[in-house]
Amino acid sequence: MIKAGIIGATGYAGGELVRILTGHKNVEIKWYGSRSYIDKKYAEVYQNMFQIVDDKCMDDNMEALADQVDVIFTATPQGLCASLVNEEILSKVKIIDLSADFRIKDVATYEAWYKIQHPTSQFIPEAVYGLCEINREAVKKARLVANPGCYPTCSTLSIYPLLKEGLIDPNTIIIDAKSGTSGAGRGAKVDNLYCEVNENIKAYGVANHRHTPEIEEQLSYAAGQPVLINFTPHLVPMNRGILITAYASLKKEVSYEEVKAAYDKYYAEEKFVRVLDKDVCPQTKWVEGSNYVDVNFKLDPRTRRVIMMGAMDNLVKGAAGQAVQNMNLMFGLKESEGLELVPMFP
Ligand SMILES: NC(=O)c1ccc[n+]([C@@H]2O[C@H](COP(=O)([O-])OP(=O)(O)OC[C@H]3O[C@@H](n4cnc5c(N)ncnc54)[C@H](OP(=O)(O)O)[C@@H]3O)[C@@H](O)[C@H]2O)c1
User: Fold this and answer.
1) What is the pLDDT of residue 27?
2) How far is the CA of 37 from the centre of ligand 1 (A)?
């Protein structure tokens, strides 16, 4: 059995990790880390875990945790993992960080967008960006995985094949994104109150959302040149789910079959990326509670643009599910172990 510890087990992403790992036949959770609920029963924080999890919450002592487990997940605010990790810990355990601390290779870019001084930037070069479908081989050998952000996962997977195949002009990409409120975490915030969110839809982080440089970096690798994007997220009144609609100019005239072949080239063998049938638009309801990302596209010959679409559960493929997928790869397990979750509908 793989022994796992979760720092930030009481947040939404951490809670989802607990839900998924509880059903994973090769994993035993040894540490339910928290800041506010130390010594409180985990099932009192999340009553859905009543009679399923008996343990109490622990603190965020990564050094102590490293002596007891094989893998540590950090599902904590930006900067926390970077402030705790050190060489001794990394020599003992594998770390999968769900925050952005090790996602962006250029430390100055991270510090500028996150307004945090990176205390352990020496580990950034070795951290593997855990987008499993694209960096699978590197993930298998990693001791530190930077689990991708939710919007970046959905955006990159939806756009990647067309950039790789040189079908779109990299600097014409516009991403319009929508997310449910669990994307903002469990902490109380006025903007996330029922009355503020219900019956409402609003853009936020316009032209300055922190996921912008992360998406740009990943799309730049795909394009083989620097990519700048417009990225506009919206908050919508639902619990889970991300929908992205991305637009780009085509470099040449292409047929439906050519574009479909580009998606199939990268995803035909991928369990968790489903390229939908012609004219079927992805919906968040069709992936809810699962590790799937549904993608599709539509050509618009009138404007010579292509519209790329993706839907995903932000807490599963966008956070905990992808983290478990990374763990499976790092420990040589079947990649889909514990992740055979059928989407909930309705
Ligand atoms: N929510 C998503 O859809 C999503 C998707 C992808 C990535 N992420 C990333 O995952 C991380 C967690 O997000 P979340 O949405 O789960 O946030 P959240 O619901 O606010 O949870 C934050 C967690 O971190 C713990 N924590 C906060 N400060 C801490 C400290 N100083 N020391 C130890 N623990 C501390 C909290 O403990 P207490 O509960 O005890 O205060 C809680 O368990 C973030 O980096 C986020 O960007 C989230």
Assistant:
1) 98
2) 13
Residue 330 lies in a domain: no
- DSSP assignment of 284-330, as one string? GGGTTTSS-EEEEEEEETTTTEEEEEEEE-TTIIIIIHHHHHHHHHH
pLDDT confidence of residue 68: 97
pLDDT band at 78 (very low <50, low <70, confident <90, very high): very high
Q: Is-catalytic flag, 150?
A: yes
Range of the domain at 111: 2-126
Asked whether the whole model's pTM tops 0.85, one would answer yes
323 vs 175: CA distance, rounded Å: 24
Q: What is the CATH number of the domain that holds 202?
A: 3.30.360.10
Nearest protein CA to atom 22 of ligand 1, as residue: 11
345 in a structural domain = no
Instruction: Tally helices (H) and strands (E) across the chain.
Output: 12, 14
For ligand 1, whether the C-beta of 83 sits within 6 Å is no
Tokens 């790329």, located at residue: 308
Number of domains in the chain: 2
Question: What is the crossing angle of helices 132-141 and 321-330, to 10°?
Answer: 40
- 181 pLDDT tier (thresholds 50, 70, 90): very high
Average pLDDT of the residues of the chain: 98
Residues 6+ apart with CB under 8 A from 187: 11
